[in-house]
Amino acid sequence: MSDLPAGPPTAPPDPVPIALETHAPSQAGGRVRLTRRKLQFFDRVKVLLTIAVIFGFLVAKKHADIPIMSWGDAFEDQLRAKSWLLVLAGVEIVRQIHYLISEHWTRYHQFWMNKVWGRWDRFVQRRNPWLRYRVGRVCKAVATVAIVAVILGWRWDLPPITALVEAPARLWDTLFSPVQGLPLLPYMVFIVGITLIQFIALFWFLSKGGVDTYMPEEITTRFDDVWGQDHVLDRVRENIVFLERPDELEQRGGHVPGGILLWGPPGTGKTLMAEAVAGETGRPYVFVDPGAFTNMFMGVGILKVKGLFRRLRKLALRYGGVIVFFDEADALGSRGGAVAGYAPPAGHDPVHGASCHGGTYLSARAQWQVFESSLASAHHAEPERVGGIRKIIMGGMGGGRGGQGELQMLLTELSGLKKPRGFFNRRVRQFLTMPPKPPPKYRILIMMATNMPDSLDPALLRPGRLDRIYKVGYPSKAGRRRTYEGYFDRIQHALTPQQIDKLATITPYATGATIKDLVNESLIVAMRRGRNFVTWPDVIEAKKLKMVGPGENVDYVERERHSVAVHEACHAVMAYRVQKGHDIDIATIEKGADFLGFVAPIPIEERFTEWRSTYESDVLVSLASLAGERLFFDNDNSSGVSGDLASATRVAVAMEAYWGMGSTIASHVGGMARDAGTNVVVREPNLLHGEMGERVEQRLTRLFDQATAILQENRFEVLAVAHALETFKTITGDDIAAIINGYPGPLVDGRAYHEDAFLSMAEEYHRSALTAHRSQGRIDVPLPVFEPTIVMAAGVTPNHWRWRTPHDV
């Protein structure tokens, strides 16, 4: 631990004129001692005893050197030769008399505390802490050299200055004097030194790295660069005020908050916010790599923590404050229990087969419910059933009580910023019965970020270590719009404010990182198309690429293309009819890595609660694929509905079991929990068993029948949307609305689908596809196409179409 200076104590208030009482209430409600604390008898005489022991040793040595000298003569001789010991004893007696008076006389003690030492302390405290630290180190070095010179002069019977000058040569001669022809001492010192150097060098090199220090001039990030998190920035600004002007809070009896925890989803701007704090304050910024304290040798991480805080204290004294940021704080502040990660399985599902893109047509909260359910069951070890309860071990290599003391050292350092430091301050002053000086107030703002706050040790989160905990969540629509504007201003684009506002609406859970990536992908799409500025179609294409990735550009066989188109058309028509709070963003049958097609909705407005009717519409859209396939393919259906059924079931279970949207009131709040004793995840039995499963099945059956009726009523619209998907592969929600309502869309002219000839040709094509499906053959009837019939009349646009097949002449 570095021997850093201890700042002077704050001068006590002026003495209160109380004649008999020795204590008075302080402003904070405590008691202020007006006299000095009484010393124990040993503390009062221990220095005199030490001087007496030293003097007795000198007398005994003198008598041993000259045996003919009596003890009395040896005592008198040492008394004359070592008179400085008497001086020290006299000074100590005077000091103890001073303490004794201060223990009984209030005014005497207050005079020395306020008028003498208080003035000196106030004078010293007005100096810069860094200057006091450097001057203190110089004074201690000079005092050490002086003491060594006096001791050497006494030992060699020389003046102290002469002894100090001759010390290197005499020390060299002493160490390298031959012992029986062999310099044994240097050899032993060399062997021990080599061994120590090996260990010291190894641990020194291992303890380096993982901590980066940025000086104020290197940080250019400001609060203006952080978009979409204004409510958190307002609170963080308060900490900056306390860091720069701490007296405003401390003079009122408060204390400066020392730590901030920023938690929330990845990419929401936690690291950027910490950089902005350092940039706004003009203080050094220390970035701690999350893996810096993971080492293969026990103790190296502890050295890193100690070294880190030693550096922070020095920087705080030199620059008046410092900001330290622990990214991914759960890597260091974890309880030690293993935390399982989650990565969605990619590629073809060997159990359920390929399907449409698993629930993109659901509302945002329903998608989150499905995701959480998948997260709870994905990538766990084989569950072990103990006493009727499923226990899932979420462990792996390196499990158990991890950290090897790094967390404990971090907690100690966070609590130890107010402990007296330095050997002289803690040991010498204690020996002299003097109270240690309190340390200087290190202005260290500790910031941590994590997306797993539940894994942090509660001892780390208590006030005094991390005083303020802020959630940096997904930005609101206004925040997303401001973020889009900020990133689009950095490139050339042709987007209107209305289009940027719509983009903020259709990306409800976009973070700062995903927004930046989408803008960059839009620019790449524009460059691929031969332009150096971004347009709205570029943004939509980039959004699609980021949502599902590029299509595989494969061709379906005709009967499978038609079945996939009908599947997605059922989703699209059902979503259009029942999901009133959403518009359709895009519908496609282009095959991707793990889907055959999908329909994605966008919210019309930003909402923070969902109702039973909303979730039932989500279930209707999920069940539309199964209902539609059985309706259009003679009660047959594909394995592509598996993902839809899983989504519908999970939402229905949540409605019955948790959200109060079923036939019962009780909530199954148990869900999943971590067993504190065994550090395993305990899951309740499957909710689909028993009465709960029957209620869920009844709800799904009722909604399935309702979905079948809706699709039967809108059969024409399903066939029309399916035809558009087979023709264009990908269409927008505006195109779907145009097809259903019969007006021109961006890509598809919906008026053609309302011609009398279309329905009969669409039904004929579907009957041929159904026959091919049964026989696993080819469709005999080509896909119908249409072309406009031009009507040449003044002011009249083409509004008649002729449907034909490729075999028409």
Q: What layout of secondary structure does this protein have?
A:
Blueprint: E1 23-25, E2 31-33, H1 41-65, H2 71-81, H3 83-102, H4 106-125, H5 129-156, H6 160-175, H7 184-206, E3 211-214, H8 230-244, H9 247-250, E4 259-263, H10 270-281, E5 285-288, H11 300-319, E6 322-326, H12 330-333, H13 364-377, E7 384-386, E8 389-392, H14 406-415, H15 423-431, E9 444-450, H16 458-461, E10 468-471, H17 477-488, H18 497-505, H19 512-528, H20 536-548, H21 558-578, E11 582-588, E12 598-603, H22 612-632, H23 642-657, E13 672-675, E14 680-683, H24 691-713, H25 715-728, E15 730-732, H26 733-741, H27 756-775, E16 785-789, E17 800-804
Parallel strand pairs: 4-9, 4-10, 5-6, 6-9
Antiparallel strand pairs: 1-2, 3-5, 7-8, 8-14, 11-12, 11-15, 13-14, 16-17
Commentary on this structure:
By secondary structure, this protein is of the alpha/beta class. It has 4 domains: 23-182; 211-338 and 405-471, Rossmann fold (3-Layer(aba) Sandwich), CATH 3.40.50; 480-508 and 510-545, Helicase, Ruva Protein, domain 3; 551-804, Peptidase M41 (Methane Monooxygenase Hydroxylase, Chain G, domain 1, Up-down Bundle), CATH 1.20.58. Helices cover 51% and strands 9% of the residues. It contains 27 helices and 17 strands. A 6-stranded mixed β-sheet has the order 3-5-6-9-4-10, sandwiched between helices. Strand 7 and strand 8 (389-392) form a beta hairpin. The longest helix is centred in the first third of the chain and has 28 residues, at 129-156. It is elongated. 31% of the residues are buried. Mean pLDDT is 76; it is low at 1-30, 336-355, 374-402, 671-682 and 790-799.
